[in-house]
From TrEMBL:
<keyword id="KW-0808">Transferase</keyword>
<feature type="domain" description="GST N-terminal">
    <location>
        <begin position="75"/>
        <end position="164"/>
    </location>
</feature>
<protein>
    <submittedName>
        <fullName>Glutathione S-transferase, N-terminal domain</fullName>
    </submittedName>
</protein>
<dbReference type="InterPro" id="IPR004045">
    <property type="entry name" value="Glutathione_S-Trfase_N"/>
</dbReference>
<dbReference type="InterPro" id="IPR036249">
    <property type="entry name" value="Thioredoxin-like_sf"/>
</dbReference>
<dbReference type="GO" id="GO:0004364">
    <property type="term" value="F:glutathione transferase activity"/>
</dbReference>
<dbReference type="InterPro" id="IPR016639">
    <property type="entry name" value="GST_Omega/GSH"/>
</dbReference>
<dbReference type="GO" id="GO:0005737">
    <property type="term" value="C:cytoplasm"/>
</dbReference>
<dbReference type="Pfam" id="PF13409">
    <property type="entry name" value="GST_N_2"/>
</dbReference>
<dbReference type="InterPro" id="IPR036282">
    <property type="entry name" value="Glutathione-S-Trfase_C_sf"/>
</dbReference>
Amino acid sequence: MIFCRVSSYSTIVDMTTSSEWVGSARYASAGEFIRDTNYIDDRIVASADKPTVEQDNRTLWPVEPHRYRLVAARACPWAHRTVITRRLKGLEGVISLALAGPTHDQRSWAFNLDPHGVDPVLGIARLQDAYFARSPHYPRGITVPAIVEESTGVVVTNDYPSIVVDFNEQWHAYERDNAPDLYPQQLRAEIDPLIRTIFTEVNNGVYRCGFAGTQDAYDAAYARLFTALDC
């Protein structure tokens, strides 16, 4: 499905079936696309010395160098922030990086940029294998970014907002000298509303266009997106 802006005219072109999965997004069978935001919300924190299940059923995993692999894809804008944050904080030497190829089918992101199509650290051909290692019948989208435990091949989290916050706040013992604070406490009152607006109107706005189920839903999403971009 393609969307484009040409003067004041826009149209929706259906290039797939309404039941096809792309990441965590499904083409809406009718009406507006609604994002599934139920991610695996485990956290990696400096206060944990072993994986610990909290009362809310989240697991807190310990900060430990060479334990985790960040899985991203350059084609996915949701993954960019994790790759950028890892670099700015100087964590390349303690958290390894896997890059999936730019395209995927219904089964998930594939490591088709690597020799023989297999990630050299995790030993898997598709990211879905890490999700199924955690839950054999994982029911949701196989998304990037994701953090995978290298020794077990189990996905730890795919909660992209928490991943970048934890890179910024929990890995101080391993970050580079003079690493920037990317989420300063004194600026959060300004940062948080801006992040919500960018997510709601721009980041997710593109998906509302691309996965709209009807022309009317597409037109409404298109107008909303470019209203935000033109501000």
